[in-house]
Amino acid sequence: MKPVIALVGRPNVGKSTLFNRLTRSRDALVADFPGLTRDRHYGEGRVGARPYLVVDTGGFEPVAKEGILLEMARQTRQAVEESDIVVFIVDGRQGLAPQDAAIAAYLRKTGRPVFLVVNKAEGMKYSAVASEFYELGLGDPRAISAAHGDGVTDLMNEALEVAYAGQPEADDDATNTRGTKIAIVGRPNVGKSTLVNALVGEQRVIAFDMPGTTRDSIYVEFERQGRPYTLIDTAGLRKRGKVFEAIEKFSVVKTLQAISDANVVILLLDARQDISEQDAHIAGFIVEQGRALVIGVNKWDGLDEHVRERAKTDLARKLKFLGFARSHYISATEGTGIGNLMRSVDDAYAAAMSKLPTPKLTRALIEAVEFQQPRRRGPVRPKLRYAHQGGQNPPIVVVHGNALDAITDSYKRYLEGRFRETFRLEGTPLRIEFRSSH
Ligand code: GDP
Ligand code: GDP
Q1: Which of 89, 96, 200, 252 is deepest in the core (most CB within 10 A)?
Q2: Is 301 annotated as a binding-site member?
Q3: Are 41 and 56 in contact (CB under 8 A)?
Q4: Does 180-353 carry CATH code 3.40.50.300?
Q5: Domain boundaries, given as residue ranges, for the chain
Q6: Rounded-to-integer distance, Cα 422 and Cα 417, Å
Q7: What's the complex ipTM?
Q8: Which part of the chain is the EngA-type G domain (predicted)?
């Protein structure tokens, strides 16, 4: 599981600037999906072999009594509770502010490991910027410049050392799960627990806590038609007698972690509700993570034609960028549509793990170019020569040639469509990377 790092501090200390730097590697990917609404507050990054999730908490006024500030404080507290590490940012140019002391007092009580960071320290002497912050009682302040990047890699190396210290090794028994890993995600009340019970309720399942995380996540192993699966909980499930019940409130962090750790995500929507911003954010994260996806539109039972049409139009309009995924109209309470949903899960997994042999990829590329040439940009016309597979889950196609910087987004989408058709890649994102020789 990817550790979660929360960025905390009062407004204007540089949290968003640091957030952007820590998640920058993802920006290019996000830009590849037009129409994607993105939640600026959750992102992903990696230092070396160590990935992490990062949460930017907005401004934190711990003494707020009402309104938007109170809501922000509430959200910050939830983010801190769900994090493995807190990076507490103060402003080296403004110096120590009274709110900093209040935030420090709160953070000390949470017992989370805290890294105290003095931002905007570029061009300043360490002793001059750091000294006044010792009195926060959070150890040695680290000086950084989020804007210029000074000190950020050192900070992350140390933070990740601590975050990963509690994690089991990759080959630890506890992390070896069976079969396809599935995360069922969606807003509260869409029917996640009901679907879990429809899938596994009758079976003797093995449920266990995944160690090494502060938010103990449960993993449920089950079988269906002889195939093994492991379900990663997002709803805060606990077994009560024969059924699973959700006992915790919705957690964005838990949802993001489950998506990162899954092979296939089932995005569950409620046919009786409009698709919300939150649904779109979750969907955006699934695509960013490159996860195979199946959409389940739940509560399809007893709906009249008019409502059904509306639900279909809403889906087509708001989640256009999920066109690669199959949708199923299901009823978790009645058990209808679930067989087909699970067949799509299997197909999406197979597509995500596809092997794309170089000769066949290159042939598909050349045929695509013969059918439609990329446009010239100025005097140069991009030349696409051959392609090979650069990764699985999601599949990555690396296209080699010359002047590939001039390839337009629409041509890239055209190529994606051709590759999808050739290899019948349904249910998985597909990434295309270009490598120019000159
Ligand atoms: P947030 O409200 O905590 O998210 O703060 P922002 O990231 O929006 O930054 C607030 C202001 O501080 C912006 O004008 C930034 O450009 C500036 N800022 C952020 N990081 C640095 C830094 O490392 N050095 C300097 N000099 N300014 C910075
Ligand atoms: P969760 O919060 O996403 O885990 O949602 P639950 O599984 O707890 O379901 C929320 C409510 O929706 C419960 O009252 C369920 O009985 C109801 N529900 C779930 N699936 C269906 C369905 O397929 N049809 C109908 N009509 N109601 C459903």
Answers
A1: 89
A2: yes
A3: yes
A4: yes
A5: 4-166, 180-353, 358-436
A6: 9
A7: 0.80
A8: 3-167, 180-353
